């Protein structure tokens, strides 16, 4: 499994392209901005783009969704809670057409023959999701290197956020790589040892 990271837009959001090296099938997580340039980049990659997965519905994570969806005719997956916030035009939530499918914890979702773990991790947004693939956790804006997501936007709650991290994410092996929605990657072991929010 190959992972390409693109840093997009004014908010420097991390967009991830996950590629199965054998089939060249791929999915994209959080295409957040620069839709036209992102589509050009994806076309040059010579991959079979299959899905768009969204960790949450904030504007910096969904800004290029419709451009990518239309260019490649692929489905979009998000939590139902965050789709409602988008449709209600809540502050900080982006614009996009209604998602094709809603994801929830425990859903049987696979990519290139491998299971994708889906965790409901509310706190940053009501419908925040985290995705686990082969020991790699895509945490969106829930968990960062030495920090956690902000909780002052609609649907945010610090107690809920910390519960999501401690009761779900930190139960995974310490060797799990964490690829967050902003900033550098880390591991759960590093966050357990050094993240002051998790003491």
TrEMBL record:
The keyword Iron does not apply. Residues 12-182 form the Metallo-beta-lactamase domain. It comes from the Bacteria. Keywords: Hydrolase, Metal-binding, Zinc. The keyword Phosphoprotein does not apply. GO terms for molecular function: hydrolase activity; metal ion binding. CDD domains: metallo-hydrolase-like_MBL-fold. SMART domains: Lactamase_B. Its cofactor is Zn(2+). This is MBL fold metallo-hydrolase. It comes from Proteiniclasticum aestuarii.
